[in-house]
Specification:
This protein is mainly α. The protein has a single domain (3-92), classed as Helix Hairpins (Orthogonal Bundle). It has helices at 3-26, 30-54, 59-88. It is elongated, with a radius of gyration of 18 Å.
């Protein structure tokens, strides 16, 4: 793999991680937070794929690790959203201040 292509992968993975982190930290909606977490996860998978090109025998281990982490992340995210929705009956994490209370 050429050095330019490796650098493009690194920059793309870094941008995905930064974009996902920014989405998680700046949004109030649980759905947006989950999408941001998925974007961060995809950025980390891109880094794992890049490492897999350098160490070809580790690629199978990284693939199994990625599948395991994705299934655990999905299970936890869905359970957290369901529990939060059952207790608060709304999908927003932080409520906005009504106009009359300012």
């Amino acid at each position: 793999m050429s050095e330019l292509l490796i650098e493009i992968y690194k920059i793309t993975a870094s941008l995905l991680l930064a974009l996902g982190l920014g989405t998680v930290l700046s949004s109030r909606s649980l759905v947006k937070m989950l999408i941001g977490a998925e974007v961060m996860f995809n950025g980390s998978l891109l880094y794992l794929a890049l490492i897999g090109t350098v160490y070809p025998y580790a690629t199978a281990i990284f693939a199994l690790l990625a599948i395991l982490i994705a299934s655990i992340e999905l299970l936890l995210a869905v359970s957290i959203v369901i529990l939060y929705y059952r207790t608060h009956r709304e999908p927003e994490v932080i409520k906005t201040i009504p106009e009359g209370d300012r």
